Amino acid sequence: MREFLRTRGSGKLADNFFSAAMATCASSVLAIVIFIGVILVLRSQLSLHAFGWKFFVQSSWDPVSGQFGALPFIYGTLVTSFLALLMAVPLALGVAIFLTELCPNFLRAPISFLTELLAAIPSVVYGLWAFFVLVPLVRDQLGPFLVKYLGWTGFFDGPNFGVGMLPASIILAIMILPIISSLTREVMMAVPINQREAMLALGATRWEMIRTGVIRNARIGIVGAVILGLGRALGETIAVTMVIGNHPDIAKSLFAPGYTLASAIANQFSEATGDLYLSALIEVGLALFLVTIVVNAIARLLVWAVTRGAPARVH
Amino acid sequence: MATQPIPAQHIPRQPDSRTRVNRVFRQGIDHLVTGLAILATVLVLIPLAAILIYLLYKGFSSLNLAFFTKIPAPVGETGGGMANAIVGSGAILALASLIGIPIGIAAGVYLAEFGQGKTFGTLIRFTADVLNGVPSIVMGIAAYSLIVAHQKHFSGFAGGIALAIMMVPTISRTTEEMLATVPHSIREAAYGLGIPKWRVVLSVSLRTASTGIITGCMLAFARVAGETAPLLFTALGNQFWSLNLNEPMAALPLQIYVYALSPYDDWHRLAWAGALVLIVMIMVSVTLVRIFAHRGTLKGGQ
Amino acid sequence: MGVDIRVENLNAWYGSNHTLQDINLHMPANHATALIGPSGCGKSTFVRCLNRMHETNPSARATGVVKMGDLDVYKDASPVEIRRRIGMVFQRPNPFPTMSIYDNVASGLKLNGFRNKKVLDEVVERSLIQSALWDEVKDDLKKKSGASLSGGQQQRLCIARALAVDPEVLLMDEPASALDPVSTSKIEDLIFQLKSQYTIVIVTHNMQQAARVAENTGFFLNGKMVEFDSTHKIFTNPSDKRTEDYITGRFG
Predict the structure, then answer these.
(1) Contact A26, C186 (CB under 8 A)
(2) Which of A225, B150, B276, C82 is deepest in the core (most CB within 10 A)?
(3) What is the pLDDT of residues A216-266, one digit of tens each?
(4) pLDDT tens digit sequence for C163-183
(5) Residue range C5-94+169-247, CATH number
(6) Does any domain span residue B27?
(7) Is C81's CB within 8 Å of B188's CB?
(8) Contact, C99 vs A33, CB < 8 A?
(9) Which residues of B touch C95 (CB under 8 A)?
(10) Beta strand C32-36 with C17-27: parallel, antiparallel or unpaired?
(11) What is the domain range of residue B173?
């Protein structure tokens, strides 16, 4: 036995080969990002040269006349994302608080499982439901209700065909809710238990304990979770395309059809005639790529700051 | 004089009624917030229930054998199914998995076993996390520009590549996470026996974490199985039987998308059925993952 | 069958921590040498320097000479080759959880490329007999996982695993400290029997254990080796006052 083992080499060659192979695969992650960036820049050269920065501030998107201004897309993206956050964040926070602090033990696993299920539903199924159920709901019930009570704000003027910014924002809110909620739960659970105990020992009510002992400590991470949800909302494509109406307009009314950066690409890419049209759409894609990278980077840094580098759960 | 007792001080206290009101007020807020939190949870679960119930209701009636065996009927005719989309999805997903899973696992192995504490490792880890947040349509455009534009035709192959690019960052992070649960003492035992590092990683670390790693792959698989956007301008979709990866190929989410937006009632019906099938597949995977994940962490020794 | 170990001017650092200072030692072949001392005195680090296990920690560094027989442990072979000739048993039993008992014992051979089934069967049986575990597991060799045994059995499994590669030296880092008294005494009996075939170095917190199994004992304190002599002398008439203080329980 000793002789056999003595004949085995040190394995150094295999070790070096193996670690090099693993490192190569790891660098593929880096390569993917760089590759996407490079190819998007390359392919949008035409449009970049033609319009320069004005591309992002011009509001007319007219393929027929060759005018490509992406402002309507930016507007639509910002409005739907902001509205979605407005609706989703309080709900997500409420669910997170409920699940981490208030929920009876036997309910915790099933309910958190259900919220995970929400995250697993594919975009196209959300879009399908939104198109056939949410849109008629907005057109027939929700719309008139909003006009009646909030019509004075001017956000609900104009004809209501069911599709538009409003249903897009609602379905977006439903879609980003699970990610904000589960990440908030994670950062809340990362707050050490002695913080909670200290508050309770001072005679705080449960809510006061949560507010000052937990949320206050985790607020950086919660902001990160919200920004991550924002990142998801900015890039959501299919469900939004199915209900937003796909019209490059900037209107105050939430009933008006609109466009987001992502839905513009999805809707027009296959019909893009001419190199300039295609290049303009790819430039929109480049903008989307850069924006989501920056937003996600900020969000991850914030979450990491609170959970101290524990491996991030993948969403 | 030092031995004189100190008289008890009269410590002023808040008048009793004010303390009581204050306490009731604070308790009231506490109850209110509790109620709001419960309300929020209920409000969140309502759309989930609504979607699932509606799917079941609308989709179940359209599910029959024909759905799983026939290709779409010509416009105007009833009947037909989504067999080609199911098979097509399978082919594209198989290609994506064949490329994405090995590279993803290898990247995860690097992060967990070789990249600890190194700046390169931190960079990769961060990049993978950020990449996970990039919209899938961007991946689609990238794959289009790389493959479709050069080949001058759409293909299931391009779709597979687009999905593979999505799987790599996801799987690398879950693999790293699972490898981190392998106790260091196990690795030490292997090193102590004179086993070279590459063998330790393969036969000890990976083997011990294998359950968790597999569930991570299943999660990534379920996630890309439902993706539509990356396939829009790569695989394009196909109304007929398509098994040639070098040609446009049908895929289930893609087909649902196209049918939902079409003006034909029959196609709407098929879209619902397809959505139900897709959701069931994904739900089953997610549930399995939950079951296995618990078993995995219990065994892995945490 | 064992070899002797000579250590000259061994110094070790963990980061900027000078954990071992100028250790000089000679451990004779086919003898058991015990290393005692209070927590954190460097005895575990010392043992790890013998088979270069400290190199798995990137911040660890060692200088000096360690010779196993004629072999210079640091200059003449790679860490992997050295570790095949020196077996190690750790403080907490660490059998491979996903492998059967058989595979655990055979792992040192299988994972180094050895394939012959018949020989493997023999080696596994021999090692398990040597570690006094054979009778308890011989029916479940391939059915039970290594982690399903009790603590004492797991540690004996780890000993069997270390013996299967037929090392010349056996290093044991507090092998019984995580075990109950019955298992502990079984392991001590084992060490007593194995002495005749291997050179054994055993780190222990338990002075009575050192007295029971080892011919020679070294006393470590704050990274230095204070005294090294026959066990009998150390425990009845130590030369250094610090040794005497430790033995009599004034500290540690």
Answers:
(1) no
(2) A225
(3) 878 888 898 899 899 999 999 999 999 998 888 888 888 888 899 999 999
(4) 998 888 999 999 888 888 888
(5) 3.40.50.300
(6) no
(7) no
(8) no
(9) 189
(10) unpaired
(11) 83-300
